[in-house]
Amino acid sequence: MFDMMKMMGKVKEVQAKMKEAQAELAQIEVEGESGAGLVKAVVNGQKQLLKIDVDDSLVNTADKDVLQDLIVAAVNKATEAADEKAKEHMKQYTEGMLPNIPGMDLGSMFNG
């Protein structure tokens, strides 16, 4: 029989672990690059851009459009990598704690 009190205890445990995991996401850092490393972006697990590094060879007003495109590409790659790391991190905290109900992906509720 389904034990509602046990389930509520698990929910509280998951909530506490999720809060801890969310706080730790700020410590995760991933890098994305474009232009064979000429532009690099660093983003944390909360999808905040932390740093942009542009190679000196690109700093020229004639290259402004290229530079802007490379920055956008680098930031997008870093954001995608941070999203994947965050999902992996959050999965570690919820693995085995939530019931496996066919058709319901309860873990996705916490992956934002």
Automatic annotation (TrEMBL):
Presence of the UniProt keyword Glycoprotein in the record: no
Pfam families in the cross-refs: YbaB_DNA_bd
Coiled-coil blocks: 4-31
Matches recorded under InterPro entries: YbaB-like_sf, YbaB/EbfC
Subcellular location: Cytoplasm, Nucleoid
SUPFAM superfamilies according to UniProt: YbaB-like
Gene3D superfamilies, alphabetized: Nucleoid-associated protein YbaB-like domain
Keywords for this protein: Coiled coil, Cytoplasm, DNA-binding
Family: Belongs to the YbaB/EbfC family.
Subunit description: Homodimer.
Role summary: Binds to DNA and alters its conformation. May be involved in regulation of gene expression, nucleoid organization and DNA protection.
HAMAP family: DNA_YbaB_EbfC
Protein known as: Nucleoid-associated protein N7U62_03935
Organism: Reichenbachiella ulvae
